[in-house]
Specification:
2 copies of one chain form a homodimer. Chain A is an alpha/beta fold and 337 residues long. Chain A is built from 15 helices and 9 strands. In chain A, the strands form 2 sheets. In chain A, strands 1-4-5-6-7-8-9 form a 7-stranded parallel β-sheet. A two-stranded antiparallel sheet of chain A has the order 2-3.
Chain lengths: 337, 337
C-alpha cells in the first residue's frame, strides 16, 4: 500500500531513553563531533519507529562553531556566543567553511550511516541552519524572544547584514554540498525563527541568502526541504527560495498552505508537537486531519516543530503506524493505490 | 489637522524611569492594588508622550488572583500558579468575580483617573485578559512556550475546557463592565497567546468565550479592542468576536490584515516593538509605512506588542509626534483634512 512518508523533527533526542542513556549531559557539539555516537543517535529513531527518513544528528551552529566564532550550546538554554556579532569588524571573525577540514566528523558520521541506512532502504536528510536563524544567535549572543538586536542591525546596517548573511549562506551551502557528497540523499534548511520577521524584511533581507543556499544545491538533484515556525505570512516567499518541499507548522492548515505555496512544491508537516502529549485518540484524530488536508499534492508527514522532550515514544510509534496504514487517496486523480 | 490616534501597549512600564522610580521591585499585583500608585503609573505616559489614550495599569491575572485562585506575578518571570488547573475539581476553586468586592481598588483607580483624564480630554481604556490566555496560565502553572497542557486539556476534555473558559469569560465581562461603569470609555481584551493555536482549535474552543465577553459589552456602547500576537491565521475569526477594533502584530501588514478582517472594523497596530530599539530613521521609516498601510479604514497606531523594557522613551516621544504630524489621507475618499 502506498502511504505518505513520515519522519519527525528531533526524532533523535531527549524523548528517547536510549538517546539519554548514550548522550549524558555534555554539550551537543561534543556529541556531534564523535561520529560513532552521532551515527548511533541518528539511527535510534529509525530502528525504534520505522520512520521513512533519518535526519543527521546535528545543530544549526555547527559550522560557525567549527570555524572558531566562539559558540557553544548550553544544555537547557541553547546556543550562546562569547562575543556577539556587532559590527563590520566581526566579519573578520567569520571565514568560509571548508567541510573536510572544519567538520570532518560530520562527513565521517554520514559515511558511517549510509551503509546501514542503505540496507534499511531509508534516506538520510542532511542538516543546516538557514542564514537568518544562525545570524540571530550570532547577533543576539543567545536565544531571544524579540530579536531586537538582529532586526536593528538588519535595518540600520543593511549592507553589513547582507554580507553577514552571505557568509552564512556560503557556509550552509558548503556544508550541505559536502553532506550530499558524503551520502546524504536529501537536505533540510532550518530557518526556525524566520517567522519573527515581517514579510517585507524577510523578502528583502533574508530570502536572497536562503535562495543562494537552496539554488546552490540544484545541480545535485536531491530533494531540498525548507522549514520555519510561524511562517504563515512568509510561505509565498519561502516557496520562491528554491526548495522542493516547504515545512509548515500547525498554525496553517495544509490545504491553506498549499494554496499559498502554489503548484509544484510538496508540503511537510504539520501536527502540533504539543498535541503529542495529549491522549492517543486526540493525537490520532489530529493526525488523520493532517493527512486529509495534505492531500492533493506531495506531502511528507511530520510535526509542525521538533518533538518535545516530554513526548512518550509510544505515541510517535503509533503515529508512524497510523500514517503507514493510511492509504494515499489523491482527490486530484481519484486513485486509491 | 486630523491624525490617526496613537497609544502604546505597555506605555506604562519599565521603559519609563519615572515608572521604575515609583514601582520599585515588588509584585505588579501589589502595585495594582494601590489606587493612587496605579493611577499615577497610568498617567505617566499620557503626560510624557501626549498619547491619545491611557490604558489602565493592570494585569490579565487580576480577577483570578482576586478571587483567590492562588496566582502571583513573579518579576522577570510572569504569572505563576500555586496549584494549576488540572481537573473538574479545580472548577470549585473558581467563582464569579464581584468587582465591587473583589477588585474595589481597580474601580477606585479608575475613579481617580477619570477626572484628570477628562481635563486632558484623553480616554481611558479598560483592561482584561481573554479567557484563553488567562486559562493558559492557570493550566500550565506559569508561562509556557508550547502550551502542551493547555492544548491537551482543550482537546481531551472539551466540556471541562469550555466550562473553564466560560467562567473566565464571565469574570472578564464582569470586570470590564465594572470598569466602564467606573469611567473607562473603551476596553481592550488581551488574548496575547491565542496565536499559538490552530484556526480550528481557536474557532471551536476559544472564540465562543471571547465572543461572550465582547458581545456582552455591546449595550455599553464603548469601543472594544481585541488583541493577540501571531494571529495572522485567526484574524478572520477574531473579526467575528464582536470587537470594533482588531489589534495586529507586525507579521501581517495592515493592508493585508484589513482584507482579512473585512469591512466595518478598525485596525490597531502594528510597529514591531523590537524596531523601536533601532536608530530613529529606521523607526520613522517603519512608522510611515504602518500609517500608509493602515489607510482606507479606521486605524489606531500602536506597536504590534508591548513596549520592550529597553526602549528609549525619546523614541516613543518622537513616534507620537510623527503620527500626530501625519495628516489622515484616506484613499477611499481622496479627502485630506
Amino acid at each position: 500500500m502506498e502511504h505518505v512518508p513520515v519522519w519527525f523533527m528531533r526524532q533523535a533526542g531527549r524523548s528517547l531513553p536510549e538517546y539519554r542513556a548514550l548522550r549524558g549531559e555534555g554539550s551537543i557539539l561534543e556529541a556531534i563531533a564523535r561520529p560513532e555516537l552521532a551515527a548511533e543517535v541518528t539511527l535510534q529513531p529509525v530502528r525504534r519507529y520505522g520512520v521513512d527518513a533519518a535526519i543527521l544528528f546535528s545543530d544549526i551552529v555547527v559550522p560557525v562553531a567549527a570555524i572558531g566564532f566562539g559558540v557553544d550550546v548550553v544544555p537547557g538554554r541553547g546556543p550562546v556566543v562569547d562575543q556577539p556579532f556587532r559590527s563590520a569588524a566581526d566579519l573578520g571573525r567569520l571565514r568560509p567553511l571548508v567541510p573536510e577540514q572544519d567538520t570532518p566528523y560530520v562527513l565521517e558520521t554520514i559515511r558511517l550511516l549510509v551503509g546501514e541506512l542503505d540496507r534499511l532502504d531509508v534516506p538520510l536528510i542532511g542538516f543546516a541552519g538557514a542564514p537568518f536563524t544562525v545570524a540571530s544567535y550570532l547577533v543576539e549572543g543567545g536565544p531571544s524572544r524579540t530579536y531586537a538586536r538582529t532586526k536593528s542591525l538588519m535595518r540600520a546596517e543593511p549592507q553589513l547584514w547582507d554580507r553577514l548573511l552571505d557568509v552564512l549562506a556560503d557556509q550552509a551551502l558548503a556544508s550541505l554540498r559536502s553532506q550530499v557528497a558524503a551520502g546524504a540523499s536529501a537536505v533540510q534548511l532550518f530557518d526556525s525563527w524566520a517567522g519573527a520577521l515581517s514579510p517585507v524584511d524577510y523578502e528583502r533581507r533574508v530570502l536572497p541568502a536562503s535562495r543562494k543556499v537552496l539554488h546552490g544545491l540544484a545541480d545535485l538533484g536531491v530533494p531540498r526541504i525548507h522549514f520555519g515556525v510561524g511562517t504563515g505570512e512568509l510561505l509565498h516567499l519561502m516557496a520562491q527560495a528554491g526548495a522542493d518541499v516547504v515545512g509548515v507548522d500547525w498554525r496553517v492548515p495544509l490545504d491553506v498552505a498549499r494554496r499559498r505555496i502554489g503548484p509544484g512544491l510538496a508540503l511537510q508537516g504539520n501536527l502540533d508537537p504539543a498535541l503529542c502529549l495529549a491522549p492517543w485518540p486526540v493525537v490520532a484524530d489530529e493526525a488523520r486531519d493532517v493527512l486529509t488536508r495534505g492531500r492533493g499534492g506531495g506531502h511528507v508527514f511530520n510535526l509542525g516543530h521538533g518533538v518535545l522532550p516530554d513526548t512518550d515514544p509510544a505515541v510517535l510509534q503509533q503515529l508512524v503506524e497510523l500514517v503507514h496504514n493510511t492509504a494515499v487517496d489523491d482527490p486530484a486523480t481519484g486513485r486509491r493505490p
